[in-house]
Amino acid sequence: MPPKRTQKRKSRAQPYTPPLDLKYTGDGHIETPARAGSDPRGHVTGITRDDTIAIASYVDDPSTSMKAKGLPWADIARHSGVDLPRTKHFFPPGKRVITERAIRKRCEEDEGLINTIAEEERELSKEQAIAREDWRVEQ
After folding, report:
1. pLDDT tens, 84-110?
2. Start-to-end C-alpha separation, the chain
3. Could you give the CA distance from residue 139 to residue 134 in angstroms, rounded to a whole number?
């Protein structure tokens, strides 16, 4: 068996003195140079509530074809008249249009749109109805 420790382990904590350019504001926060100005990494609002309403009304419009409803989210947003915002990225550098996942997520939150493709309702043929009834009875 390994021997028991008889002495306490020395603390690894290092004393830290903040640099002199930090300033206490008196309201519980410390002003730092990093907090000055806007943060370029900040969250971009993405599409607005008005944009999601426009997308939902485009999808619900009876004149919109099923093929148009089956397009990717970015294309549906463009067809509905939404101007998609561009976000700044650091790697690889440049600005890009927001992702389709962000559009889908926002439409799901605001309008309850999980997907834009709706199946057309149609009546079953007589053979299908009989087959389903037989299957139900067997269960």
Report:
1. 988 877 778 888 888 888 898 888 888
2. 64
3. 9
- Which range scores top for mean pLDDT: 43-52, 67-76, 114-123? 67-76
Q: Which of 89, 50, 91, 97 is nearest to 73 (CA)?
A: 97
Tell the burial category of 8 from Cβ atoms under 10 Å away from its Cβ (0-12, 13-18, 19+): exposed
What's the length of the chain?
Answer: 139
Helix, strand, or coil here: 91? coil
Label residue 113 by pLDDT band (50, 70, 90). confident
Using an 8 Å Cβ cutoff, are 52 and 82 in contact? no
| Structural tokens at position 97 | 């249009």
Q: Which burial class, exposed, middle or buried, applies to 59 when counting CB atoms under 10 A from its CB (0-12, 13-18, 19+)?
A: buried
Mean pLDDT of all residues belonging to the chain: 79
Using CA atoms, how far apart are residues 13 and 19, in angstroms rounded to an integer?
A: 18
